[in-house]
Amino acid sequence: MLEVRELTKSFDGFIAVSRVSFDVPKGGVSAIIGPNGAGKTTLFNLITGHLRADTGRVVLNGRDVTGVPPHELCRIGVGRSFQRTNIFAKLTVYENVQAAFLSHRGRGWNVFASVRDLYRDETMSLLESLGLASRAGEIAGFLSHGAQKQLELGLALALEPDILLLDEPTAGMSATETRETIRLIDRVARERGLTLLFTEHDMEVVFSIAQKVTVLHQGRVIADGSPAQVRADAEVRRVYLGERQ
Amino acid sequence: MASARSYTVKRFPWPLLVLLAALFVPALGSRFYTFLANDIIIWALFATSLNLLVGYTGLVSFGHAAYFGIGAYTTGILMKRAALPFLLAFPAAAVLAGAFALVFGTFCVRLTRIYFAMLTLAFAQIVWAICFKWNEVTGGEQGMPEVPYPDLAWMGSLPVLRDLRTSDHFYLLTVLLVALCLWILHRIVRSPFGRMLTTIRENAERAEFIGVHVRRYELAAFVLAGAFAGLAGGLFGIFNRGVFPDFAYWTKSSEVLIMTLLGGMGTFWGPSVGALALILLNQQIVSYTEYWPFVLGIILVVLLFGFPGGLAGAAELLGRRLSRPRRA
After folding, report:
1. B52, B186, B195, B213: best mutation site toward chain A, by most A Cβ within 10 Å?
2. What's the first-to-final CA gap in chain B, in angstroms?
3. Helix B292-306 and helix B310-327, axial crossing angle in degrees, nearest 10
4. SS3 of A133, please?
């Protein structure tokens, strides 16, 4: 599905991501873990075209998509959420998700239609599945942090992605919110047959839903395999799990 | 009950009422009132066109007068030098101003924030310099006085309008054309395209990742805003009985920006309210004191700190306050 080959990115001599390679199998749930500053977000930004890689390639379904700008990438099936919550704060919940539908279905250049009821059914049913339908009319910026994260997931899902990249989907959440969000993500991914790639620092979350784990440390991949393999890896235990004990 | 009440308030055809009221101004018989109303209405269109950028797309332009000036010169030159009818010279203002906005905008939207603002200003100053120096075409420093009125004989042949002055006829034409332009702009901001512009204002990075080609949308907004500013300029040149280089000068750009802020860039009608308020205030205060800019400065400071939503935002807030106790 998604192949990352030898991606490298440095900022002013600091190598943030160094020759990173891994695969994301179709239909599965994969995770990238690593301590803070390991290069997870940079790696995501390289994959989604927000940053330009120094070297290396990103291949999606056999097509080289290295350096393809974000607005094109999401047209060919890549959805993404951001670590710092990234929504349209002054629009309503409904307007947020509706905007994503409008843009994705190519209606954004329509100058004369009234926007109000376009894709109302699609928008409401998506909000329904996220548990946000009753809050459709609220201003998105006033929602709780957890609800904003769910809304952001909605923005990504409205683009009907084949692969969904979630950057720390539970960052800053309480334990309860985290559990709920993970359950939601897991359910949505199953229902829609999505391929999922997410970064996370919470090991419990990772091992509960991921089938494949890639461990990043100081910009390099130090382990890549099933949760059991990764857990057993000596270097991972030393640099990552060890730190927590 | 409060919601039902606010629903009727919202549903009330305010714009239609304002349009009717505007059409009746010449009936007051005062040349001065018609003059003032004409000034306000043209500036309302100019400010609303700017708000498409500032309020809806989140792009602050310091050089919007460039397109106002280009529109004014286009209509003025075509009507005076080429003796073309208004019916052709007026749309030409939109076409030429839009074309210039397309060229300048292509460069401007590559930059963000303050750099965008400075580049719009730079292009506007270039336009001003050309208007100022190109004597053969623009009349240079002296400008181009005596732009003729459009031929409105047909209006004079209508029964009610027969006794009105030519300037009144032109005023009525202005009202109708500006109303049409505002209606189109209103449809644009309520369209899917308008919603895409709002997502860019709110969060350009996220907009990009719901598939919005941010630069292209910004450029489209820039061209539309320029074209409508051009139309406002075309009308203003005739209204002013002449076109002068200061139409494109940076003080005009700042004036229209102040109107937009004063009225409230968060709402569609805010800039029109701002145009009304600024021009009336100017009239009133200038008759008391020569320190008008000083008074304006104080008003702006109070407004920006007290009511960042401008006059329209403040009115909305007041309306909500008034309807709240009834709900309880």
Report:
1. B195
2. 10
3. 40
4. helix
Domains for chain A: give ranges and CATH numbers. Answer: 2-88+160-244 (3.40.50.300)
Nearest-Cα residue of chain B relative to residue A74: B211
What is the distance between the alpha carbons of residues B195 and B193, in angstroms, rounded to a whole number?
5
Tokens representing B86 are 């208004």
Q: How far is A126 from chain B (nearest CA, A)?
A: 15
State phi, psi for A182 to the nearest 5 degrees.
-65, -40
Straight-line distance from the first to the last Cα atom of chain A, in angstroms, rounded to the nearest whole number:
36
What domains, with CATH codes, occur in chain B?
A: 2-327 (1.10.3470)
| Token digits of residue A11 | 């900022």
**Angstrom distance (rounded) from CA B189 to CA B270:** 14
The beta strands (E) that lie in chain B are given as: 144-145, 242-243
- The H-assigned helical ranges of B24-112 are 31-51, 65-80, 86-108
Q: Kindly identify which residue of chain A lies nearest to residue B183, measuring between CA atoms.
A: A112
- Residue A166, amino acid: L
A123-151, pLDDT tens digit by residue?
999 999 888 999 999 999 999 888 888 89
Q: What are phi and psi of A162, to 5 degrees?
A: -90, -35
- Tokens standing for residue A234: 């000596």
Task: Report how far residue B3's alpha carbon sits from residue A243's, in angstroms, rounded to the nearest whole number.
Answer: 57
* Token pair belonging to A81: 């959420």
Nearest-by-Cβ selection for B195 from A50, A102, A155:
A102
Would the CB atoms of A88 and B202 count as touching at under 8 Å? Answer: yes
Cβ atoms of A79 and A71 within 8 Å: the answer is no
Q: What angle separates helix B2-11 from helix B310-327, to the nearest 10 degrees?
A: 150
B298-317 pLDDT, tens digit per residue, is: 888 888 888 878 888 888 88
CB pair distance less than 8 Å for B209 and A91: no
The average confidence (pLDDT) of chain A is 86
Distance CA B128, CA B62 (A): 13
* CA B297/CA B307 separation, integer angstroms: 15
| Beta strands A163-167 and B144-145, pairing class | unpaired
CB contact under 8 A, A86 and B192: no
| Angstrom distances, CA of residue B156 to CA of A13, B153, B159, B162 | 77, 5, 8, 4
Separation of alpha carbons B228 and B232, rounded Å: 6
pLDDT of residue B104: 95
Residue whose structure tokens are 């080609």: B213
Task: With a threshold of 0.90, tell me whether the complex ipTM lies above it.
Answer: no
Q: Which residues contact A203 (CB under 8 A, 6 or more apart)?
A: A33, A241, A244
Within a 13 Å sphere around the CA of B320, how many CA atoms are in the beta-carbon half? 6
Instruction: Quote the pTM value.
Output: 0.86
How far is the CA of A193 from the CAs of A27, A157, A178, B39, in angstroms?
6, 12, 22, 61
**Residues contacting residue B166 through CB under 8 Å, at least 6 positions apart:** B149, B152
